[in-house]
């Protein structure tokens, strides 16, 4: 039956992120055993479930490659034998924020979160506008698992601004930013990509603990053919549409009915909302296509997959920039 000799012999291997590492699993027996590598609770870094051969070499090791690697040898005589090597990867901090923009208001509270991966363990520091923050009775710093949080109670105007989560260990450092603001967030446009020939229901949601007082809608028609695209003039509207507030998510849902559109055309728009703290950021650019004159809008799921001729042209041209004059 097969026997194994593992290298490293203690079953432990430590390396830095980005470096190479190799494991050996030499097997003897008669007949000559077949040696296969696998990773416990996951795939090998190559993406394969099993790899054959006594040598397993990894290049450009990443944090996710850490874990237990198993070598199994079998030759049909007796039971297969298995050896393990535990790979420990050291790496500089990797930081992600749950939300890069947080909306709140005076007298309320706000919670800023960053998720930290680091080995060796890292120190997490919070800054506001480049000034190091210390815990106070209103400012609480905590962590649970990988998530580090800054909780600010009874918000004041001075608390609004740019925050950073700075993470340092012996290998490196990383910093991510979070904006805390009383202004509305950038609207998220939820409207369909197709409309009736001459009108369109523009809908969006926006994060704002305070009521939306005013909405700015910028829209224009794109003149497109197979060889060029030429943007038309922006229409700039200031409106006050009805809003539905979701107290659980902090989102406000609004809509506005655009009229006097041109049939069989491509339109694009931007939305910006305002509360008592001022105007927030613009939404991402949204495009839609008006149907042909006299042709009813089909709302079935299959229609959403159909190819509008102008949509094909627009997609092929890949419009990636907008200039507001």
From TrEMBL:
InterPro entries: Cell_Adh-Cytoskel_Orgn, FN3_dom, FN3_sf, Ig-like_dom, Ig-like_dom_sf, Ig-like_fold, Ig_I-set, Ig_sub. Residues 2-86, 93-181 form the Ig-like domain. Keywords: Immunoglobulin domain, Repeat. The keyword Repeat applies. Residues 1-20 are annotated as: Disordered. PROSITE patterns: FN3, IG_LIKE. Residues 183-294 form the Fibronectin type-III domain. SUPFAM superfamilies: Fibronectin type III, Immunoglobulin. CDD domains: FN3, Ig. PANTHER family: CONTACTIN 5 (PTHR45080), FI23916P1-RELATED (PTHR45080:SF38). This is Lachesin-like.
């Amino acid at each position: 039956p097969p026997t194994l000799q593992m290298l490293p012999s203690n079953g432990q291997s430590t390396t830095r992120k980005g470096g190479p590492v190799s494991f050996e699993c030499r097997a003897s027996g008669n007949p000559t055993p077949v040696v296969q590598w696998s990773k416990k609770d996951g795939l090998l870094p190559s993406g394969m479930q099993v790899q054959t051969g006594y040598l397993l070499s990894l290049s450009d090791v990443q944090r996710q490659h850490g874990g237990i690697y198993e070598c199994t040898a079998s030759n049909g005589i007796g039971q297969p034998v298995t050896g393990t090597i535990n790979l420990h990867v050291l790496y500089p901090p990797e930081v992600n924020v749950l939300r890069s923009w947080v909306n709140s208001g005076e007298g309320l509270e706000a919670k800023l979160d960053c998720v930290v991966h680091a080995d060796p363990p890292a120190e997490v520091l919070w800054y506001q506008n480049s000034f190091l923050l210390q815990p106070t009775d209103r400012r609480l710093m905590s962590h649970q698992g990988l998530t580090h949080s800054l909780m600010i109670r009874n918000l004041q105007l001075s608390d609004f601004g740019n925050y950073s989560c700075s993470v340092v260990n012996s290998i490196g450092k990383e910093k991510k930013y979070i904006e805390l603001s009383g202004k509305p967030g950038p609207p998220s446009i939820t409207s369909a990509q197709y409309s009736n020939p001459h009108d369109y229901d523009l809908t969006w949601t926006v994060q704002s603990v305070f009521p939306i007082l005013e909405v700015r809608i910028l829209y224009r028609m794109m003149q497109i053919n197979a060889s060029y695209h030429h943007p038309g003039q922006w229409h700039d509207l200031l409106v006050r549409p009805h809003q539905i507030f979701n107290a659980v998510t902090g989102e406000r849902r609004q809509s506005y009915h655009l009229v006097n559109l041109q049939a069989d055309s491509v339109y694009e728009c931007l939305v910006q909302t305002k509360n008592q703290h001022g105007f927030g950021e613009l939404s991402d650019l949204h495009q839609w296509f008006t149907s042909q004159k006299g042709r009813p809008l089909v709302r079935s799921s299959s229609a959403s997959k159909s190819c509008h001729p102008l949509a094909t042209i627009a997609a092929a041209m890949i419009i990636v920039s907008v200039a507001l004059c």
